[in-house]
Automatic annotation (TrEMBL):
The chain crosses the membrane at residues 23-46, 58-81, 93-111, 152-178, 190-209. It is found in: Cell membrane. This is D-methionine transport system permease protein. It comes from Planococcus koreensis. SUPFAM superfamilies: MetI-like. Residues 19-213 form the ABC transmembrane type-1 domain. GO terms for biological process: D-methionine transmembrane transport. Keywords: Cell membrane, Membrane, Transmembrane, Transmembrane helix, Transport.
Amino acid sequence: MGFDFQHMLELWPDISKAFGETLYMIGVSLAIAIVVGLPLGIVLFVTDKGLFLENRVIKSILGFTVNMVRSIPFIILLVALIPLTKLLVDSTIGPAAASVSLSVAAIPFFARIVETSLREIDKGVIEAAVAVGATPWMIIKDVLLPEAKPGIIQGVTITIISLVAYSAMAGVVGGGGIGDLAIRFGYYRYDNTIMIVTVVILIVLVQILQQLGDWTSKAIDKR
């Protein structure tokens, strides 16, 4: 069966609901990724060798933890975090449950992007701030973050797009959203109309997000 426009209209309430669930999962996990991942990325950078808060123990522990989580394929992480998900949201299915795994996957991902963005800053700028007696907090707030802002914004964009892919994958275990719709209708029922619609929605969503991210990054880049 090919594309059936009438069939799409009949299922439009389900499609709209799934799209809303996808946006919910992305929004929640992105917010948590930024709140936790941004300071984590900063700590990974400033505790590195030769920097003003050098600490090999903290750097090694955090680096190992971040790499460990990032090394686990997301589909395996989804299953491994079921007990934690049950504890936090009292459910293992639905968008709220999927948001737990999405957040855990997104935090180390975004943290590494933040760290990489900070590494692109000219070391001379940091050394000059240290030389004039700036406190670590002042260096982070007034030097590191403003200088790395365009790269961090691009990192947010990359993280959002990765979350779109991850959220679709969450549908395999009943996480809701576009992926869940594609699995239930497109795969189990061989519904080509739903498969085409979900693919188009995901492509359009990613294109819009990438364009917005690029525009925002260029708009705030004063270098």
